[in-house]
Amino acid sequence: MYFSSGEVAKQLSVSVRTLRYYDEIQLVQPSIRELNGKRLYSEEDLFQLQKVSLLKSLSLPLHEIKQMLTDLSIAEILTMHVQNLEQQSVALQTSIQHTHTLKHILELEGQLKWDKLLPLSLKTEEQREKQREAWLDVMNEGQVEQLEEDLPKLSEKETKKWVNLIRRVQWCLNQGYGPTSELGELIADDLLLLSEETFGGDAELMGQFWDIRKSPDQSERVGLYPVSADVIQFIEAAIDWLEGKGEC
C-alpha cells in the first residue's frame, strides 16, 4: 500500500514542503516516484518518517538524524525519546513549583519584585545540587531526604497553612500585637502543631531546620523562601512564651 505526499502530510502532521526537502537531502525518500513527479510512500517510508519526527523532538540536526536512522534501532530511538520526555517532565514540574512559589510570595507580600523573580527563573540543576550540599553541611542524608519530601517550600497546596500563619504574624506586627498577646499564643500553638505535622514528630530535625531558618545567610544557601527577621523573632518569642506558661 502506498500513500501520496498529501496523504502522508495529513497522517503525520508534516508539510508537503518538508517531505520534499527530506527527499532532496536523501533523509527519507519515497519508494516510488512517478514520471509526473508524484511521490508515493510505502508503510516502511512512513515508519522512517516517524523515526525522524521522534529524533527531531530531541532537537537534533538533520545531518545527525540521517546517520542515526542507519545506526539506531526503533527501540533505541524510543528509549532516547522516553529519556527526553522524562527530562521535560522534571523541567515542567520545576516550573510548576516555581509558579506556585511566586503565587505564595504575592499572597505574602502583595507584590513581586524582580530580584525574587530572577533566581526562580534561572534556577538550574547545578544550583539545586549546591543547595542540597548546603543542607548536607548541617544534616545527615536521611534528614535531607525527609526535608526534600516534607519541607514547606511555599510551593505546594498544603503549605497554604504556612503562608496563612506567616500572614497572621505580619498582621500582628502591623497592628501592634506582641508575641505574648493572646493572638501570639494562638499563632505559637498553631505553629507547633504544624511543625509536628511537617517534621513527623522529629524534634531534632525541627530544631535544626529552625536554626537554619533564623540565619538569613544559611536560608539563602539552602534555597528557603526569605522570611523577614521580625517574623522569625515574633515566632520564637511566642513559642518561648507559650512553652514557659506550660512549665508554670
TrEMBL record:
It holds the Pfam family MerR_1. InterPro entries: DNA-bd_dom_put_sf, MerR-type_HTH_dom, MerR_fam. GO terms for molecular function: DNA binding; DNA-binding transcription factor activity. Residues 1-71 form the HTH merR-type domain. Coiled coil: none annotated. Keywords: DNA-binding. The keyword Disulfide bond does not apply. PROSITE patterns: HTH_MERR_1, HTH_MERR_2. This is MerR family transcriptional regulator.
